[in-house]
UniProtKB/TrEMBL annotation:
KW Transcription (keyword) present: yes
Organism classification: Bacteria, Pseudomonadati, Acidobacteriota, Terriglobia, Bryobacterales
Organism annotation: Paludibaculum fermentans
Protein's recorded name: LysR family transcriptional regulator
Domain HTH lysR-type: from-to ranges: 5-62
GO molecular function: DNA binding; DNA-binding transcription factor activity
Highest taxon above the source species: Bacteria
InterPro entries: LysR_HTH_N (IPR000847), LysR_subst-bd (IPR005119), WH-like_DNA-bd_sf (IPR036388), WH_DNA-bd_sf (IPR036390)
Sequence similarity: Belongs to the LysR transcriptional regulatory family.
GO cellular component: protein-DNA complex
């Protein structure tokens, strides 16, 4: 502080000003009276004005002391408020957290987790951004996002990846399609079908997993149309442009023009991953991670209960 005034000077001054008794103030501060008197005299010298009128019988505040008492209270209260704010941030209870997520994540338990997070951490400013997986990984790399939920994020040395949902693939066909009445469809049945699929640039690992599944059953999908969002993909399928293979959670946005079917045999699943930097610096990430892991723990990952067919 200016002129060498420290917070202890203000605390000592307030104790004397409130008690108007050096002995009682010293006892409250748990120090001896002579050091207290010395600190008050030092404060008066730094200010250049007396703060107390001392007699053998009483202690009274001077006009300068009357002015200082309220200002000292405000100063100490503000310092305490700032200290508590810093401590809340350090504990992950305050500050700003930027969360990225892919479209299919919003079809999972993520909305419930976000609601729970706002309830548990009401002082945190939560910023939400929707991305494709590759965009989300790039945003994490560049420090634009603190944590996120990605589809098949893949492995990077700097990236921490934790699968929170492991779900099967499903087949989506037009309601008038020849396969629409079947309960399950073998992968090999799709070899001659035209496909509508998401853009490869949206997420290379997710793309690779789907292609690997098709290759296991002896075919490479003939992609006739690509789109950036699953809702668009489903609308195009419903219009008869082709079929698609999607994460089971996408059944949650299926409309009346399409039918979602189980694929057999079930193989190579797709992951919804909790992702952040290994060197994450935002202390709020820990609290968010805890609530995500808790929120996705029930029902069991990949269970039919979590991904009902419409």
């Amino acid at each position: 502080m200016n002129n060498g005034i420290e917070l202890r000077h203000l605390r000592y001054f307030l104790a004397v000003a409130e008690d108007l008794h050096f002995g009682q103030a010293a006892k409250r501060l748990h120090i001896a009276q002579p050091p207290l008197s010395q600190q008050i005299r030092q404060l008066e010298r730094m200010l250049g004005h007396a703060l107390f009128v001392r007699t053998s019988r009483s202690v009274e505040l001077t006009p300068a002391g009357e002015v200082l008492i309220e200002r000292a209270r405000r100063t100490l209260a503000k310092v305490q408020e700032d200290v508590e704010a810093v401590q809340r941030v350090g504990r992950g209870e305050d500050g700003s957290l930027t969360v990225g997520f892919v479209e299919s994540a919003i079809l999972s338990r993520l909305p419930a987790v976000l609601g729970r997070y706002r309830s548990v951490y009401p002082k945190v400013q939560l910023r939400l951004h929707e991305f494709h997986t590759q965009q989300l990984v790039d945003a994490l790399r560049n420090g634009l996002v603190d944590v996120g939920l990605a589809r098949d994020a893949g492995q990077e040395d700097w990236l921490q990846v934790e699968p929170v949902v492991i779900e099967p693939f499903i087949l989506v066909v037009p309601r008038v399609h020849r396969l629409a009445r079947q309960e399950t469809v073998p992968w090999a049945e799709l070899k001659d079908e035209p496909f509508v699929f998401f853009e490869q640039s949206a997420g290379q690992k997710a793309w690779d997993r789907t292609m690997e599944n098709c290759a296991r059953f002896g075919f490479q999908p003939r992609i006739v149309q690509a789109a950036e969002q699953w809702l668009t993909v489903l609308r195009l399928v419903g219009a008869g442009l082709g079929v698609t293979v999607a994460p089971a959670s996408v059944a949650g946005i299926a409309h009346a023009d399409v039918v979602c079917l189980k694929l057999t045999p079930q193989g190579g699943a797709t992951h919804l991953d909790l992702v952040c930097r290994r060197d994450v610096s935002n202390p709020l990430v820990g609290g968010f991670r805890r609530l995500v892991l808790e929120g996705f723990a029930e029902p069991p990952q990949g269970s039919s209960e979590e991904f009902p067919m419409p």
